Amino acid sequence: MMPAERRAWPRDHISWAACVRPGRDVHVLDLSRGGALIEGSARLAPNSRIELRLNAQGQVIHLSGRVVRCYVSALNESVVSYQAGVAFEQHLDPSQLVLASSD
Predict the structure, then answer these.
(1) Which of 23, 35, 90, 95 has its Cβ near the most Cβ atoms within 10 Å?
(2) Could you tell me if residue 5 is inside a domain?
(3) Is residue 62 part of a domain?
């Protein structure tokens, strides 16, 4: 038996570049109306407030949120990668989500 889906919104499984202010590059791995899973080289402290800047087909989308978790996702000799779950302060408009995922 499959466990019940606990997520409030469906996820779009995508991979494209974004930026966390003040200029840390990240990749968006999952995106929903209420949050995102991002990956980058910087550790983001849980409960910290961040601004995620997405560039979708030339349109910049700014999303404010809080880091709900952050963990090491990859480790090699010279690079550490972190994945962070971010809950948006305001839900992403569905039209922005369609635009962002079509990039």
Answers:
(1) 35
(2) no
(3) yes
Distance in angstroms (rounded) separating the CA atoms of residues 82 and 57: 26
Q: Can you tell me the distance from the alpha carbon of 25 to that of 11, in angstroms, rounded to the nearest whole number?
A: 21
| Average confidence (pLDDT) over 22-28 | 88
Put simply, whether the predicted model's pTM sits higher than 0.85 gets the answer no
What secondary structure, in 3-state letters, does 26-60 show?
Answer: EEEEEECCCEEEEEECCCCCCCCEEEEEEEECCEE
Higher pLDDT pick, 18 / 100? 18
- From the number of C-beta atoms within 10 Å of its C-beta (0-12, 13-18, 19+), residue 21 rates as exposed
Asked whether residue 42 is domain-assigned, the answer is yes
How far, CA to CA in Å, does 47 sit from each of 27, 58, 60, 73? 20, 30, 25, 19
